[in-house]
């Protein structure tokens, strides 16, 4: 009996258009095929920052273009959109140019800011958020295809299909989620947003992934896969094997999503087509800095302050742009003598400053307990 959680996997060792097209078609076939998509179709990409495709920060234009080619014949319009990191929300043309997406316009694809049509405030029956301001374009498109990028993440350990929908919300909502006193609460905030409208289908770009301290300051690594499936949690669970996770549900975000019934609770519930689980592990993949696994859930909020990663400025790289002070959700940074100073008592260790610093000057510091563990 076939599992309801079917994931298609296909090897893809370069971003050459012909190879991407063939691999995407194979992954989609193995996943059971794309659903019928008509009218206004939104491709929700990961466009975190205006960075070059080879840096593995954003969804690659070759994959988005190949997917658009498959959808365009039956759709009234295909739009690629996202809400990038806080400081880039007014740099759209720069974003589209530097990520390589501007070439998609030649295919008839529309490139737009996700918030172009404004925001809608919605009630959320969540465990972390009670209300959220969400992009109208996301809510009102006839169909949404989630086209994510596989990366490490210094807070949630991995970012894939589940985490990619965090970008549907406005800055204030995302900051509210980042103010969470524990990693578990942050994970629940991500899931709260994901549950507002689950995408019709999910495609994950893991041809080049990001290792190290992602999602913006890690290193690109050729992992060589494209994944596809109707269930985002199932796709992420499969992709986490590339990162070396034997048990994907050890990742707090995936465990929390499974606990809320958003997908499979174990490998046996996933129908993986195109690969064996053991074939997926990428030798030597460097995950993000680990958190404590043995701390009971009830103590995580308390322990978070003891073992979590903290931002630390490298003055030699800092240009004094003050971007970090603008993205901090709790105003824990102030500029003094042209450099940011961190108020340790106010800092919630969300690492937004690390993620958004254009020079990479805000590093990640591990306290002695984290290093010992």
List the secondary-structure elements in sequence, H or E. Answer: EHEHEHEEEHEEHHHEEHHEHHEHEEHEH
Helix content: 25-40%
Low-confidence stretches: 291-305
CATH top level of the largest domain is: Alpha Beta
Q: How far apart are the termini?
A: 43 Å
Q: What's the mean pLDDT score?
A: 89
Query: Could you give the count of β-strands?
Result: 15
| Count, helices | 14
**What structural class is derived from the secondary structure elements?**
alpha/beta
Shape label: globular
- Kindly provide the radius of gyration, computed on alpha-carbon positions and rounded to a whole number of angstroms: 20 Å
Major beta sheet, specifics?
9 strands, mixed
CATH topology of the largest domain: the name is Rossmann fold
CATH architecture of the largest domain: 3-Layer(aba) Sandwich
Count of spatially separate domains: 2
- Beta-strand residue percentage: 15-25%
Fold blueprint:
Elements: E1 5-11, H1 17-30, E2 40-45, H2 61-71, E3 77-82, H3 92-98, E4 110-113, E5 119-123, E6 131-135, H4 136-140, E7 143-153, E8 157-159, H5 161-164, H6 171-178, H7 183-194, E9 201-211, E10 219-229, H8 232-240, H9 252-259, E11 270-273, H10 277-280, H11 300-307, E12 310-313, H12 323-327, E13 333-336, E14 339-342, H13 352-356, E15 362-365, H14 368-372
Parallel strand pairs: 1-11, 2-3, 2-7, 3-4, 7-9
Antiparallel strand pairs: 1-10, 5-6, 7-8, 9-10, 12-15, 13-14
Helix pairs in contact: 1-2, 7-9
Organism: Aminithiophilus ramosus
InterPro entries: 4Fe4S_Fe-S-bd (IPR017896), 4Fe4S_Fe_S_CS (IPR017900), DUF362 (IPR007160), PSI_iron-sulfur_center (IPR050157)
Domain 4Fe-4S ferredoxin-type: 309-338, 339-367
């Amino acid at each position: 009996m076939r599992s309801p959680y079917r994931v298609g996997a296909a090897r893809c060792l370069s971003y050459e258009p012909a190879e991407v097209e063939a691999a995407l078609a194979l992954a989609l076939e193995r996943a059971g095929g794309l659903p019928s998509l008509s009218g206004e179709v939104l491709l929700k990409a990961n466009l975190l920052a205006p960075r070059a495709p080879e840096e593995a920060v954003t969804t690659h234009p070759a994959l988005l273009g190949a997917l658009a080619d498959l959808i365009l014949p039956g759709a009234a319009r295909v739009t690629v959109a996202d809400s990038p990191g806080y400081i880039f929300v007014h740099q759209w043309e720069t974003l589209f140019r530097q990520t390589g997406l501007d070439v998609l316009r030649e295919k008839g694809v529309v490139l737009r800011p996700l918030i172009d049509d404004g925001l809608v405030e919605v009630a959320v029956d969540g465990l972390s958020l009670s209300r959220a301001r969400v992009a109208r374009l996301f809510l009102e498109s006839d169909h949404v295809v989630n086209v994510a990028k596989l990366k490490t993440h210094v807070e949630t350990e991995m970012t894939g299909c589940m985490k990619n929908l965090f970008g549907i919300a406005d800055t204030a909502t995302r900051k509210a989620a980042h103010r969470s006193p524990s990693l578990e609460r942050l994970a629940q905030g991500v899931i709260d947003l994901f549950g507002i409208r689950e995408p019709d289908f999910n495609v994950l770009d893991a041809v080049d992934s990001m290792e190290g301290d992602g999602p913006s300051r890690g290193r690109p690594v050729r992992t060589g896969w494209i994944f596809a499936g109707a269930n985002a949690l199932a796709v992420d669970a499969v992709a986490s094997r590339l990162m070396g996770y034997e048990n994907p549900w050890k990742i707090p975000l995936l465990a929390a999503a499974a606990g809320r019934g958003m997908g499979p609770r174990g490998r046996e519930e996933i129908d993986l087509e195109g690969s064996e689980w053991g074939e997926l592990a990428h030798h030597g993949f460097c995950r993000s800095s680990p958190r404590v696994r043995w701390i009971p859930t009830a103590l995580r909020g308390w322990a978070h302050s003891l073992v979590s990663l903290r931002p630390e400025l490298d003055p030699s790289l800092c240009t004094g742009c003050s971007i970090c002070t603008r993205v901090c959700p709790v105003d824990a940074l102030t500029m003094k003598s042209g450099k940011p100073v961190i108020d340790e008592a106010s800092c919630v260790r969300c690492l937004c400053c690390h993620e958004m610093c254009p020079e990479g000057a805000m590093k990640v510091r591990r306290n002695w307990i984290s290093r010992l563990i």
